[in-house]
Specification:
SnoaL-like; alpha+beta; NTF2-like_dom_sf; SnoaL-like domain-containing protein; six-stranded mixed β-sheet; 10 strands; 244 residues
Amino acid sequence: MAALDPGRVSADHAHSRRGARGGGAAGPGRARAGARCAERHRGVGPDGVLADAPVVTRGGRLAVALNLPIFCQLDFLKEDIVMTYQTPLSTSDRFEIFEQLNLHQRYIDNDASLASAQTYIGLYWPEAEFSVKDIRENVFRGVAGLKQLYDYAHSVFPLHLMRHALGTFVIDGGDNVALVEWNWIVTWKAEKEGVVSTGTYTDRFEKRNGVWKCLARASNVDPNWPADLFQPWVDQQETTFKAS
């Protein structure tokens, strides 16, 4: 499976940066995060910044356009690196993204019709990518790929017996880009009781013309994934898959 590449932050998405420790100098947190990113991304310097990234001065602070993939950026956040933006996320921005997360879970629980598939696809930008890693590994790209994802889920698995819900979440970002990490929960609503499975979504959202939508999403199941429950359905996918 090709690895999910959520894209790179655009050159005009500039982040002011300063060390989480050391009074504006690169602290040990940045050093650790930068070293890891340098190992995984060619051209990334030891401070975690692309060697050819444009450097500018804004408001007396050093700013740099971070052309780093989403997961590398999350490394910086986890190391408590302080990142500021020209336009931080507003309360309204955060609520709109939060609503998108809830709509995602709500729309998955719709039926297998074409209208429902189109409603779900409408949560994403046309060039969006969705990476799934459970007992299968796939990357679904664009409108056609997202429709295949929706149709696959609704025809291969008995989703009408399940309910999807939103768990804990973290929304961060600015300058019309948001990085979101949130937990998903699937429970039985018929025939059985209890939790079916759980996992984590790691997303990149972008705001275009005042509208927030998902541009990249990666789904990773928790280690308790019930492979023995899902495997029989996957084994029958050649005969059960049906396009809406």
